[in-house]
Specification:
- This protein is an alpha+beta fold.
- It has three domains: 226 residues, HUPs (Rossmann fold), CATH 3.40.50; 81 residues, Uridine Diphospho-n-acetylenolpyruvylglucosamine Reductase, domain 3, CATH 3.30.465.60; 145 residues, no CATH class.
- A hairpin with a 2-residue loop joins β10 and β11.
- The radius of gyration is 33 Å and the shape is elongated.
- The protein starts with a helix and ends in an 18-residue tail after the last strand.
Length: 489
């Protein structure tokens, strides 16, 4: 391949603009040395400000030092500033327990980003070529990757607020070696590339030649597959973001959505939306978790399967999926804590009680004028009116306890609070933070939004009215009867 054609590829694939500050990542191999020389020759024409960066990983002793010397020498001959990092990767790998290649890649990219920041560079040029792309796609295929993995390496992507550019992704290594030989550009061969202890090396040295016997244009085919997958993956990612915006709502510690709405999505979009939610929720070390097919499908099938309307499923990365009738939540698990608040007699004139446990509020006031009462004093679901003079203060607003019972207004006898929750299809986790109002005598007076008790009720003889109103939960309880009772955040 002629220099003119290589330069044109760099112009087109590098997306440079005049006066761009660029860091050229140079290992000393033929691909990166070709990139360095081509960028140096294009710099005056394109107005580029180049800085050479090299990482000496310390794996190969004198060989690594010789690589470093070559890069320093060539940079000096080209009149370019050169930054070098000398790392003790063997020690770092022992300390962290990381895979050698993964650790090296992590440290290399971290250093390149730091050089870019120091130089004010907006781009880092990398010399990955068509062979590297083909190996990446094939390796991910063998691991069971989907469209995102089969997209391979992007020609451009953002890393640490810097653009990584790979202008050689459509050029094979032989062309780059030939260019170096023709132009007399020195380069080094990394002897570790011949060691079969690394997966990528075995794939390059053993599997690729075998598969090439079946398809002589395998490298080109895999590169084309990556380009197709990049476009389709971008489309699916955009569709998943749109579905997220339309269907998903924030919930405490995670996200909530309607099972029936989710079921209406295409299978491919269901999987992408679940994976998107899992990725959003992952934090810390879990951020590196590969939420792949098995976990995504486990969660998707749990959302859609027929069976018990309420259940909780533990997922990887310390996450939980909870289904409660039509409501589905993906979240970090948390245990509800019992709560207890008091409303004293002195507070009853007018009060507003914030219930941190539910995200709602309980407000109330006392009046002698029936006209000031909601709905002309008739009972409602989200408010309750009592005979103030028969209430026993302080009132207690608390979480439910085992065995709680209420004498429901209009019914004979008492009923278990648990049974009322079940009848009203209140989700299991919601029951643990649903407020109960009881008098100082221990009698439950009201289940906000559900039932009022037959105690301290208003009669024709009532002279002083006490009205309480519950103002919903922070997040809307999708698909439960509570949405009919004013429990909307």
């Amino acid at each position: 391949m002629q220099e003119r054609e290589l330069k044109e590829r760099i112009r087109r694939e590098g997306s440079f603009v005049p006066n761009d500050a660029v860091v050229a990542a140079v290992s000393g191999g033929p691909d990166s040395m070709a990139l360095l020389h081509l960028l140096a020759r294009l710099a005056p024409e394109l107005g580029l400000r180049l800085t050479v960066a090299h990482v000496n990983h310390g794996f190969r002793g004198e060989e690594s030092d010789a690589d470093e010397l070559l890069v320093r020498t060539c940079a000096a001959e080209l009149g370019l500033p050169c930054r070098v990092a000398r790392l003790d990767m063997p020690a770092y790998i022992r300390e962290t327990g990381m895979n050698g290649q993964a650790a090296s890649r992590e440290q290399r990219y971290r250093y390149l980003a730091s050089v870019a920041r120091e130089c004010g560079a907006t781009k880092i040029a990398l010399a990955h070529h068509a062979g590297d792309q083909a190996e990446t796609v094939l390796m991910r295929f063998l691991r069971g990757a989907g469209p995102a993995g089969l997209s391979g390496m992007a020609a451009e992507r953002t890393f640490a607020n810097v653009e990584l550019i790979r202008p050689f992704l459509r050029i094979n290594k032989d062309a780059l070696v030939s260019y170096c030989e023709t132009e007399g550009i020195p380069y080094r061969i990394d002897s570790s590339n011949l060691k079969r202890v690394y997966t990528r090396n075995r794939l390059r040295l053993e599997l690729m030649p075998t598969l090439t016997a079946y398809n002589p244009r395998l490298e080109e085919t895999l590169g084309r597959l990556a380009e197709v997958m990049q476009a389709e993956n971008a489309y699916l990612a955009k569709a998943a973001e749109a579905a997220f915006a339309e269907l998903v709502r924030p919930a405490k510690g995670g996200f909530a959505f309607s099972r029936s709405a989710f079921a209406g999505l295409h299978l491919a979009l269901q999987r992408r939306l679940i994976k998107l939610l899992l990725d959003y929720l992952a934090t810390g070390t879990d951020k590196q978790e590969d939420f792949g097919y098995t976990l995504t499908e486990l969660a998707r099938e749990a959302v859609l399967r027929e069976g018990p309307p309420n259940f909780t499923l533990d997922l990887a990365g310390n996450l939980q999926l909870c289904r409660e009738y039509d409501r589905v939540e993906l979240m970090a698990p948390s245990e509800p804590h019992p709560f207890l608040h008091y409303i004293g007699a002195d507070d009853a004139g007018s009060f507003s009680l914030r219930l941190e446990e539910t995200g709602g509020r309980l407000v109330g006031f006392t009046t002698r004028d029936r006209k000031e009462l909601p709905n002309q004093g008739r009972n409602g679901r989200d408010y309750a009116i009592f005979d103030r003079e028969t209430l026993e203060f302080p009132l207690r607003v608390r979480s439910r306890q085992a065995g709680d019972r209420i004498e429901v207004l209009g019914l004979k006898g008492v009923k278990k609070v648990k049974d009322i929750f079940i009848d009203e299809k209140i989700p299991a986790r919601r029951r643990e933070v649903w407020p109960l109002v009881e008098g100082d005598n221990g009698l439950i007076l009201w289940l906000p939004g559900l039932r009022q008790a037959a105690h301290s009720v208003v009669t024709e003889k009532t002279r002083l009215f006490f009205c309480m109103t519950f103002i919903g939960f922070e997040d809307e309880p999708l698909g439960s009867n509570a949405s009919q009772h004013g429990f909307i955040g």
